[in-house]
Each structure stands twice: as C-alpha cells, then as structure tokens.
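lol ok so funny story. i was supposed to be doing the assay writeup but got distracted and ended up predicting the structure for this chain instead. priorities right. anyway since i did it might as well share w the group, maybe its usefull for someone
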Amino acid sequence: MSVEKKFDLKALASMDVKDLFKKRNVSGEDREKTSKAMMKPVVSFDFGSSFIKIVEGRYVRGQLKVSKWFKVETPVGAIVDGKIMDKISLVNALEQGLKLYKLKATDAICVINSTQIINRELLIPVVADDEVETVVRYEIQKFLPINLDDYLVQYVKLGEVEVNGAMKYRLNIITFPQKMGYAYYELMKELDLKPYVLDVSYNAIGKLCNYTKMLNTVTDAEGTVAFVDMGA
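and the output, tada:
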C-alpha cells in the first residue's frame, strides 16, 4: 500500500542550503547592506544506528557559522538501515537533547543513509530539460528491479560527454524510498520542527565542500581528496 502524499517529498529532497536565504524588502542606503546573504538558523540531524549527530548553524556573509553541536544516543533498534522502526523512542531521545541545548532553529535538515538508497551514474541522450526525468525513469527500469512508484528519483547533471560521436548527459541518479522519507518528515513534525531538507550523507558532504570552499586550496599535484565516513 502506498503512503498518502501529504507533502511534496520531491521538493523536500530537492532543497539546497541556498534556498534558506532570507529576503528582505529594502531601499535606499540600506539596500547594499541587506543584500549580503544572511541565512536563518537551521538544525541538521545526521541519523546513525548508534548516534544522532545534531548541529545548529547558519550560513552568513559567505561563511558557515556553527553555534551548537552535540550528539544523542540512538535508542537500540530505533533505526535499522536508515528505516525508522521506533518513532516514539526517537522522539523522546531527541526532545531531551533539544531541550537541554536550547536550540532556536525551527527549520530541520535530515541526513540519512541506507542500502535502500541507490546512487548511480547514468548516461542518457541529450534531450530537452522537461524530458530528462522521463528518460531517466525509463533507463532506471532497465537495470533496477524496483517499482519506481514507491521511489523518489532525483538527478544532478554532471556534464556532457561524447560517446560514439553522439553527445550524452552524464547524470548522478539517486533513488530514495518514499515511505522512508515520509517517516522522517513525520518525525520532525512530532518535534515541532519544519522539515526543510532531506538528504543523503555523501550528497551532504558534497554541499559542505561547495559552500565552505574547503577544497579550494587543494592543488592538482596533491591528487584526489577522499572522504571516509566511519561513524554510525
């Protein structure tokens, strides 16, 4: 049985940190000052089977500012392979942590990982933008034995390449179980938070690198940079 769609899961998974920028109506001399990017605070949850890592911060004047960070022990059996198995225990554990550290943010980012989340690179013919998703879903069904109606399909264009004389889009594809995403949405609502971004760990690390420019000092001579996630 499919989950009733009470919210736009696709929009939630498509959000990026740049979407949190505040916009203010300004005029005159104040316009230049307020035109600088200022983000409202957000709280990010990195869900693991052993611990839930929680960070509150904001992106302001080109820098990522972290105000609070802590971790909460994940109740035994509450999360299995990214799937929420015991929402009540999770709510109780997280409520205690949020109350103890007095977080002010109301927008919530959920970062999870699961073997059910599939990440692939894919080559497709160059087509109009409004046709890309249709082609992607068709190609996925060729190599993944899943019912796409139960999955959210997201893609990122990595560039164009020439294959046998024909130009193709090189895409990064992520398929995300909708029921799993909906469970985290419900969890955030139970905590009186606004679910704003749903992400996977490796994609979140990529965003962190892009927005903090932490790799700008790495030269070609130093080679490839690898990130290894050893936590749970």
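The CA atoms of residues 71 and 143 lie 38 Å apart. The beta strands are 42-47, 51-60, 63-73, 79-80, 83-84, 107-112, 118-125, 151-163, 166-177, 194-200.
back to the writeup now i swear
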